[in-house]
């Protein structure tokens, strides 16, 4: 699927993901083309590939894709922080074939330059125990600022995987209802926390800390951190979340992406809307399904109650590794 992502054939990626989920739901092994053709989402080409894998343990198309130099270069470029698929294709068309070519581009953003300089650090998987150590540093600093602050590790770590691509953390405080100025605000937390962690030498660079208006954000900080005894820069995201929205944020930032898309689609089918701020009912959409009224809040604080409101059984985070 990574190959098709790199060449921007997203429809194929979605097709493969649906097929994988279909196979996982089968009680009996699917071993032949004829068996596969009986399943939803399996046409002749996909069924042929399944039978080839069963018979040979290999897939010719996968072997061929690894020889595709264009796909390999695009994969390399997309590994640079701040470079998405469109930028990678633009750079490729301009003749960029490696990190050295990319480094001399005159239009590099500061974030992309850091992404090139720390390419190998950012693309090295992080063991669970190291993620936990980064978390402990942030949690200790947060408690030093305010003993009432609570911290959570999100992303693939919460889903139980053994290595992570980056470190996703939520910081919140019981009783808080908003981030902005006012009663029970969290507006002050992020600046104090990141300032302290930077002074300690733990946070190495800020890659995104501004809102859409260019002002310092009060809710998110994306950058890099490092443990002195390990010496590798790791991508870390720190999000400030009101206690009143904790459950929705836990659900949203735990993932994985395919699980999130599936559960949000389920909400839409039920006339609801689900995002990191909560589950809403009586949502009004136009003829193009664009939301024009967010509706009434059903639940935001309790993650389990969001599952209940959607009419689905509770899934532990480790059960959300879909696709």
TrEMBL record:
PANTHER family: DNA POLYMERASE LAMBDA (PTHR11276:SF28), DNA POLYMERASE TYPE-X FAMILY MEMBER (PTHR11276). CDD domains: NT_POLXc (cd00141). Gene3D superfamilies: 5' to 3' exonuclease, C-terminal subdomain (1.10.150.20), Beta Polymerase, domain 2 (3.30.460.10), DNA polymerase beta, N-terminal domain-like (1.10.150.110), DNA polymerase, thumb domain (3.30.210.10). It is found in: Nucleus. This is DNA polymerase. It is an enzyme of class 2 (transferase). The active site is at residue 49. One of its GO terms (molecular function) is metal ion binding. It comes from the Eukaryota. It catalyses: DNA(n) + a 2'-deoxyribonucleoside 5'-triphosphate = DNA(n+1) + diphosphate. DNA polymerase that functions in several pathways of DNA repair. Involved in base excision repair (BER) responsible for repair of lesions that give rise to abasic (AP) sites in DNA. Also contributes to DNA double-strand break repair by non-homologous end joining and homologous recombination. Has both template-dependent and template-independent (terminal transferase) DNA polymerase activities. Has also a 5'-deoxyribose-5-phosphate lyase (dRP lyase) activity.
């Amino acid at each position: 699927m990574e190959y098709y992502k790199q060449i921007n054939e997203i429809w194929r990626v979605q097709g493969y993901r649906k097929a994988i989920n279909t196979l996982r739901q089968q009680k009996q092994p699917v071993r032949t083309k004829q068996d596969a053709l009986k399943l939803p989402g399996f046409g002749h080409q996909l069924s042929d590939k399944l039978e080839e894998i069963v018979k040979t343990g290999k897939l010719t198309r996968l072997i061929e894709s690894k020889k595709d130099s264009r796909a390999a270069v695009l994969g390399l470029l997309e590994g640079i922080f701040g470079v998405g698929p469109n930028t990678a294709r633009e750079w490729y068309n301009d003749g960029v074939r490696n990190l050295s070519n990319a480094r001399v581009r005159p239009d590099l953003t500061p974030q992309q330059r850091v992404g090139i300089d720390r390419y190998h650090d950012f693309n090295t998987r992080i063991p669970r125990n190291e993620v936990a150590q980064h978390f402990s540093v942030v949690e200790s600093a947060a408690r030093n600022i305010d003993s009432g602050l609570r911290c959570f590790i999100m992303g693939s770590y919460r889903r139980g995987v053994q290595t992570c691509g980056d470190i996703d953390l939520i910081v919140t405080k019981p009783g808080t209802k908003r981030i902005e100025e006012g009663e029970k605000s969290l507006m002050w937390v992020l600046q104090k926390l990141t300032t302290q962690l930077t002074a300690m030498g733990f946070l190495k660079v800020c890659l995104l800390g501004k809102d859409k208006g260019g002002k310092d954000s009060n809710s998110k900080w994306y950058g890099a951190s490092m443990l002195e005894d390990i010496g590798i820069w790791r991508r870390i995201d720190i999000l400030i979340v009101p206690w009143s929205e904790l459950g929705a944020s836990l659900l949203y930032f735990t993932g994985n992406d395919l699980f999130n898309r599936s559960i949000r689609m389920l909400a839409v089918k039920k006339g609801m809307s689900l995002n990191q701020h909560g589950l809403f009912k009586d949502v009004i959409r136009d003829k193009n399904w664009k939301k024009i009224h967010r509706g009434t809040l059903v639940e935001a604080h309790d993650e389990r109650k969001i599952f209940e409101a959607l009419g689905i059984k509770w899934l532990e985070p480790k059960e959300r590794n879909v696709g």
